[in-house]
Specification:
This protein is of the alpha+beta class. It has one domain: DNA polymerase, domain 1. The protein is 21% helix and 34% strand. The chain has five helices and eleven strands. The strands form three sheets. Strands 1-2-6-5-4-3 form a six-stranded mixed β-sheet, with no helix packed on it. Strand 8 and strand 9 form a beta hairpin. It starts with a strand and ends with a helix. The mean pLDDT is 91. One of its GO terms (biological process) is protein ubiquitination. This is RSE1/DDB1/CPSF1 C-terminal domain-containing protein. Pfam families: CPSF_A. One of its GO terms (molecular function) is nucleic acid binding.
Length: 213
């Protein structure tokens, strides 16, 4: 099945009406709603992506909105199923709260969790992600942004709209002195004033994140 379409059920007529469509060519395997107007999708080339109804653009000639891409991510495994659920309840004392949790399962038996986080934490987590990827090379010796790029035939999209939780949590397995050294180099520009900049406090926040799944 190519691309994603958003349908609305018309009760009186007893049929479905196509409200919006993603015009990019994606060989879909599974998808799940994030909200009523945004969708998380998994396609056959081991990628994930998100789309959202773009109401700022005029509808097409046949009265449909466009589902505009808002995120691209290379997962590296084939996503077979998605469901709105969690394995464990969100801890009450968690530093970072999340919403709209979606669990996914892959053909290799992996389970993963995609959640929505408040905008105030996005710059913080992205800067931690970059600090770790700059300091620690993966086993393939390629850039993290290159590895996570959405790739489909000759089409390549840089990773966007996703934060690599696995990479961020990997700092918890490092020697503590090495972890603190990396966090001290994180770019704190644009962080919300309420977010601590002390590496020890940052490690506590990352540890909180690791307890959400």
């Amino acid at each position: 099945m190519r691309s994603v379409s958003l349908l609305s059920y018309r009760t009186l007529e007893g049929n479905f009406e196509e409200v919006a469509k993603d015009w990019n060519s994606e060989w879909m395997v599974t998808c799940e709603f994030i909200t009523a107007e945004s969708i998380l999708g998994g396609e056959a080339h081991l990628n994930m992506f998100t789309v959202e109804v773009d109401k700022s653009r005029p509808v097409t000639d046949d009265g449909r909105y466009v589902l505009e891409p808002t995120g691209y991510w290379y997962l590296g495994e084939l996503t077979k199923v998605m469901i709105r659920a969690v394995l464990v309840p969100q801890p009450d004392d968690n530093s970072i709260r999340y919403t709209q949790p979606i669990m996914y399962g892959t053909n290799q038996g992996s389970l993963g969790l995609v959640v929505q986080i408040d905008d105030m934490y996005k710059k913080f987590l992205l800067s931690i992600e970059k600090a770790i990827s700059d300091a620690e090379k993966n086993c393939m010796q390629i850039e993290h942004s290159t590895y996570r790029s959405f790739t489909y035939n000759k089409r390549i999209e840089p990773p966007s709209g996703f934060i690599d939780g696995d990479l961020i949590e990997s700092i918890l397995d490092m020697d503590r002195s090495r972890a603190i050294e990396i966090l001290e180099k994180a770019n704190t520009r644009g962080w919300d004033p309420s977010i601590p900049k002390d590496p020890v406090e940052i490690l506590k926040i990352i540890d909180d994140l690791s307890r959400t799944h």
